[in-house]
Amino acid sequence: MRIALSLLLLPLLPFSTAAQDVPTPAAPVRSITFGQSVVALNGPWKFHVGDNPQWADPTFDDSHWETVDLTPRAGSFDPVFGYSGYVPGWTTKGHPGYWGWAWYRIRVRTETQPGQKLALAGPANVDDAYQVFANGALLGSFGKFPKTGGRPVVYVSQPALFPLPQTNGGNSRGTATQALAFRVWMEPNTLTEEPDSGGMKSAPLLGEAGVMAAHYQAAWLVPIRAHSSAAIDGALFLLLAILAASLVLFDSSDPVYLWLAGIFLLTAAEATLVCLAAWTQWLGGITFSVTRGVFVRPLILGGWVMVWWVWFRLRRPAWLPRVIAGLTLLYMLSNALGEDLFFTAIPHPVGVAFHSVSLGIRLLFLLLLIDVAIEGVRQQRWEGGLALPAVVLVGMAQFENELGILHIRTYWFPFGAQVSLGDVANFVLVAVLAALLLRRALLSVSRQREMALDVKQAQEVQQVLIPMALPQVPGLAIESEYRPAREVGGDFFQIIPNPADGSVLIVVGDVTGHGLKAGMLVALMVGAIRSTSELNADPAFLLNALNRRLCGRGRAHATCLALRIPADGNVMLANAGHLPPYLNGKELPMEGALPLGMIESAQFSVMQFRLAPADTLMLMSDGVAEAQDEKGHLFGFERIHAMLQTRVTAAEIATAAQNFGQQDDISVLSVTRTANLKAAIA
Known about the structure:
By secondary structure, the chain is an alpha+beta fold.
């Protein structure tokens, strides 16, 4: 109850319990009588830049040092982070551009009750790390100070509590003088990150230990509330990253989902870094600044330009993606040098120059974002118009520190939670993207349905083009097996009898690719075969005609084998890169030739042989030999040759290859001469 009452009175206590300063020859002494009070040590403090271990000595004469007052002006707030009760740092009090070590000293005369213990709370806002001494003894520190001296590891300002040693034994009411000294270190990059930087920017607190412990616990609510929006951002963008990644699986043809998944994941990572830096001491200032400023933020900013570039399906100017990549790398470099992260090698004036470069690059990115959004408005009015406000806010959020330097507030504290311009931009961005993603997903579903319908229609066309019921040819027994690897295959065959002379034209082939594109090319090939064979059924003439049809159509290529079996059994065969046929289990010796569509003046292999009664001719596509099991072993020509040494059907060969591990379309055609063709015709 006593602690709770003290917390309720906390805002009033520093003003109601402070006594008048008592001057001494050495330095002013502040006199404080403690009941259950907490007092803000606003001053007067003695201040000096530099570093000297003797300055912790309570007998050291600091009367010649500067005098600093940490009393905040009414209505003052941190221009970058928005905290109230803000006091400008030493850079505005006669030490512009100074970073490094500095000391604050104050003498406090305390009057305590018997058994009463005191504790000291470090400043809530400080640049950037400090050690605190009481009467020359080290009480503790905020930041990691190496034992061998040197530069400490700094963290984002957090509450810190230091119990004070008792000076009167603790058994009686007593008055004592505490000489308090703060040894403060400021990083050089703070000069460019924050205006009015340097040292303590809020006053330490002194009070009864129990009340101070309660105050310390309550003080943690400030950074927790202040960065709760970052935690919400992190969780929200992580969910969005998962959603975008799932949309990649749903529609891999649209690259925007992959870009969004990456950007959402980076944004969630940045929010996580902010929370870890504000709530823990796991990330040092340099680690946090390098990870966030040098890598994450440039990738996010450049990534957003690419996201909208891909979203609106822009193609011009073609050099823009390369420019974005170059600017992102330059932004990384300028941040690394401009934030004085490598101050041991880079002088501060050079760092300031690179910070200006970083500012210029962010302005370029903002202009690029707006330009891409405006182009999106021109091409897709509804989506571009909805995206434009979010794009402008995201770009403006990159200038929060600069706006703070101009004393333009970019942080607000509704219900105690810190909300920044970046949070507002993220909120608007999420709302816009949710609407746009829903619309895009619905359009994608519609497109996939249309594509499925197209594939179904292509299947129906292919079923018409590739004969399911083989024509009856006198004197020949013909078997066929066709096993497409996908819904629409790229293998084809045609059997065209000529009743006038009793001959038959057989054409087999394999076009490049799979799916709908291959199916359309098959349709072209079959149509050309049908029309050409009516003029001339000579295999060589047919292949030359098909070659002319395919040349000049980009990557439209096909292997093709054509043979004409006349009534006397003297076969004429022409081949354009297809597998040679097997005659009675032996591969016919044919010279190699280019596939169709490669060059207009291609020469194709031509040969003649006789198909005697009971001879079997086996024709197949390369999908048989290229069948592959789970260990990567090929079905191969040796297995084909072994199977052909027995009386095997086309279906048995196709099934064996398919069961082994089909990778490509499989087609097998067998032709067996059963009797003299002339006798059959008669």
